[in-house]
């Protein structure tokens, strides 16, 4: 097998002659990913939990033995989802140059021949295949999703969730196999010395074959390569982080079009789905139906405004990564529950006037209903809600994903253990 590789295999492998390649540079990129990717994974799983999968409203719904341990998503701190989702999207984007640089540094490994010299190598190459394929799939679909470019031909949420588990498993196996060599490679060359070295010499030959047998002339130093990759990550951060900063900085979120400031005034903050896109047309005859176990009440907007009003300052965050902090005024959800004789609801089912779509309804946990800052909001920043922001009434709950802060609310059913 050593003597008879596939046609062109040796020629292709011989083309990778950059003197930068070697265990040290690969390990530097690997160390950055080892620090950043677990955070992306953990925040992604937390965001899935924020959708309350116990109510069957997280996507995908049926995940078999990959389901997370059940727990109620907390309402405190109120910025929890804002941080987890923003960090998941922003850090994922920032790490893209590092991922590509790491793939560039190990590309000769893809042309190793023979492909399997031992069981350990088979496991390593299999984990590498799933690792590379998994991370490219997650990055590609994630970027398309935040751009609202649904070109998949499959359900994004399902594919992204299961793809994350495939990638995570491959990542854990790969780290277990490669961590000792990563540590030894980093110790072989002090980082400070490399950052002060403008010239470059190839690393000594290594057992993994990353160092080219016939290195070409250097066109950039390792210091320059690290600066280039780091600079690209900083640029992506600058074009992304504005999604979580209100005011002028929001206009810099060029990579997240839904996270930019759409206008001025009290209602001039981002919106995920407009009333036109949702097919919602409001008339003067709107009424809210509130139901309990034994009682039902119908309220108009004037009646809701006549009830005791509460004002809270809460963030609202989107699965795409953007979030914003606004001041909301309305009726406490727990006051509406008490109005229909449910003093201790176990959950609340909220339905929108929107007739279609994945998020035209939501079920809220008991702690979300009973939190003193959970509102059926009627106004924002001192003005009536605009139609795009949910007029005549919308839900706003601390730390709840924005898509479950239902807009254009039609009815609310408060449930107890006996009728949940």
Automatic annotation (TrEMBL):
One of its GO terms (molecular function) is oxidoreductase activity. This is Oxidoreductase molybdopterin-binding domain-containing protein. The chain crosses the membrane at residues 24-46, 86-107, 128-150, 162-183, 224-242. PANTHER family: BLL0505 PROTEIN, PROTEIN-METHIONINE-SULFOXIDE REDUCTASE. Residues 283-416 form the Oxidoreductase molybdopterin-binding domain. One of its GO terms (cellular component) is membrane. Keywords: Membrane, Transmembrane, Transmembrane helix. One of its GO terms (biological process) is respiratory electron transport chain. InterPro entries: Di-haem_cyt_TM, Mopterin_OxRdtase_euk, OxRdtase_Mopterin-bd_dom, OxRdtase_Mopterin-bd_sf. The keyword Transmembrane applies. Pfam families: Oxidored_molyb.
